[in-house]
Amino acid sequence: MTRTAILSDIHGNGVALRAVLAELDAEGIDRVVCLGDVCQGGPEPDACVDLVADRGWPTVLGNADDFVLDAASAEGSSETVTERQLAVREWSFGRLGPARRELVSRWPRTVELELGDGLRLLGCHATPGSNDDVVLPDAPEDEYRAAFAGAGVDLVTCGHIHLPYVRRVGATTVLNPGSVGLGYDHQQDVSSLRFDPWAAWAIVGVDGGRLSIDLRRTPFDAAAVATAHRTSGMPHGEEYARSWTPA
Fold first, then answer.
1. What ranges in the chain are assigned the alpha helix state H?
2. How far apart are the C-alpha atoms of 182 and 200, rounded to whole Å?
3. 94, 149, 154, 241: which one has the fewest Cβ atoms less than 10 Å from its Cβ?
């Protein structure tokens, strides 16, 4: 069997990413596709870029990565950009430095690879045609097919919405592995938002032409993430830290 790990939406959470790396190494999985949003929004943007780059993973450019490089990239987005996000973006931009920013700028919008036994994968951040569109797993069929049909592959992997799910479009399976570094219950009260103390990701297996999908949750130390927010110098660090502590 060939196994390929699918990771997305790390968002500068080095604690979560290191926990997943330890599990990947323990299981001997060295083929990984990263679906973007590596650096913006957390206390370790530089370390997360370094960890991904050091592994040599195919990595796509997420909308938040794009935003770090150029704040104007968010103009016209369906998501409102707050003053807090702009402040964190400026701090992340400085922490990355010129070399890392150049590396991130070279990440493509999509990646394709062979999974094995003739099966093919297309990796994107949000949809094959956009790194910013929000298409939820319960979207109407016509809206969903407009976003994902016609990819011409066996498996499309996408991130962006921080929700793990699997859905079919014709002969194509669409997989969202969830978020490594910033998962949350989308139905909770935003005034008391708490993030998940686990990293969501997936393993795709191929054996004799059979495709399998294993959705994973890797626990990590949420208190360590809160401490990293408080000590990193990141703007609004205390506010972010509260979202990593019990209510």
1. 14-27, 45-55, 63-69, 83-105, 141-148, 222-231, 237-242
2. 9
3. 94
* DSSP helix/strand/coil, 141: helix
Q: Could you tell me how far CA 173 lies from the centroid of its own chain?
A: 18
| 89, 144 Cβ separation under 8 angstroms | no
- The per-residue b/e assignment along 90-120, b for 16 or more CB within 10 angstroms, e otherwise, is ebbbebbeeebbeebeebebbbeeebbeebe
The CA distances from residue 195 to 93, 155, 185, in Å, are 24, 28, 8
Q: How crowded is residue 137: how many other Cβ atoms within 10 Å of its Cβ?
A: 13
> For the segment 131-154, what is each residue's pLDDT rounded down to a tens digit?
999 999 999 999 999 999 999 999
Half-sphere exposure (Cβ direction) of 165: Cα atoms closer than 13 Å: 12
Residue type for position 31: R
Whole-angstrom Cα distance, residue 193 to residue 173?
Answer: 31
**pLDDT of 80 strictly over 90:** no
- Three-state SS at 229: helix
Split at pLDDT 50, 70, 90, the class of 191 is confident
Strand order in the sheet with 2-7: 32-34, 2-7, 198-207, 210-219
In angstroms and rounded to an integer, the radius of gyration of the C-alpha atoms of the chain is: 17
Phi, psi of 147 (to 5 degrees): -85, -35
Q: What is the dihedral of CA 82, 175, 111, 182, to 10 degrees?
A: 30
pTM: 0.96
Looking from the CA of 30 toward its CB, the CA atoms found within 13 Å total: 4
